[in-house]
């Protein structure tokens, strides 16, 4: 039996403790910095930049975090996260202002590299801070709410910033406004007067190199990271290529597919979040992966808009369960010193999937069309499903099945 929570531990403060709420607000602001780039491609077309450089200018931002995250994430802990976020948010704001000066390919590439580097530092620190505030008994529900917070900027920022840009004079004003939003993060961090870690409830020291290598040799962690990469690769392929499929069916506005999916994801996480911590987390994860296999196969049977949007709802249901379960298991399967590190590795798999999805999807699409692409995505999800038994018996109480804690 595990010891009762101490007054300093996250469990003692419940699900919505002050640190968790503050860090979630900071996460919302952090992802506003991403959502504002929905119109960046259109902005590039207004600049005297050769269109051949547009893809590199857009894509290098994602490549930098992919390379840096494994190197920087061990340095962030719940203890140093608030201070790190103050400095990193100022750095992100400065990078957003620098877009006003970058008008050529070289200067834009430089700003994008700097922006991507500071952004991954901010996001890694933010995730470490969130992990330090989570009640271990409610990890599934907590990550469900975190996922909702991450999705909200993509629903709010595009219309709000478009409205602001039209009135102020263009896209650069949208970036400048977003820079000002980033300046709200330092005062938020000042609300955490004593930091996130008090009384030694969570080790504040960084994990050692030997701990990291031992963690990476853990078959359960390997299975979880492999599962996550397979899932996110299939999702990225869907995200980038489903529009062409829908246009081929004669569907007027394919964007409604992701509207249905995203709203369902949010609804599942808000309404059913309390069930995420009842029973073994691998069971709902397995069920959601099986549903994704069926959804990808079902896309090849779609003939009209109603069925297409209906599958959007089912995709949202499956993803609304699968993604929080992956994050919660990364938390549950980790010792306290490695929770932030493994959570950041989970985010690394997400970015890796968005790198591999279009990279692998494009030749499949050219070779066999959407039918072959969706069959391949179903296969990836089926392979992810086969990795679920490798997660062990991680249970509902935030305790890994290991030599120091009971199986649940």
Radius of gyration: 21 Å
Largest sheet: none
Instruction: Give me the strand/helix succession.
Output: HHHHHHHHHHHHHH
Structural class category: mainly alpha
> Tell me, what's the shape?
globular
Number of strand segments: 0
Helix coverage percent: over 70%
Q: Into which percentage range does the β-strand content fall? A: under 5%
Structure annotation, total helices: 14
- Cα separation of the termini: 10 Å
Give unreliable regions as ranges. Answer: 1-12, 197-201, 394-408
Overall pLDDT score: 82
SSE inventory with pairings:
Elements: H1 18-35, H2 40-44, H3 54-72, H4 81-98, H5 105-133, H6 139-168, H7 171-182, H8 185-190, H9 209-217, H10 219-248, H11 255-271, H12 282-299, H13 305-332, H14 339-386
Question: How would you sum up this structure, described in words?
Answer:
The protein is mostly helical and 408 residues long. 70% of the residues lie in helices and 0% in strands. The chain has 14 helices and no strands. Helix 12 (282-299) crosses helix 14 (339-386). The longest helix is centred in the last third of the chain and has 48 residues, at 339-386. The protein is globular and about 50 Å long. It starts with 17 loop residues before the first helix and ends in a 22-residue tail after the last helix. The model is unreliable at 1-12, 197-201 and 394-408 (pLDDT under 50).
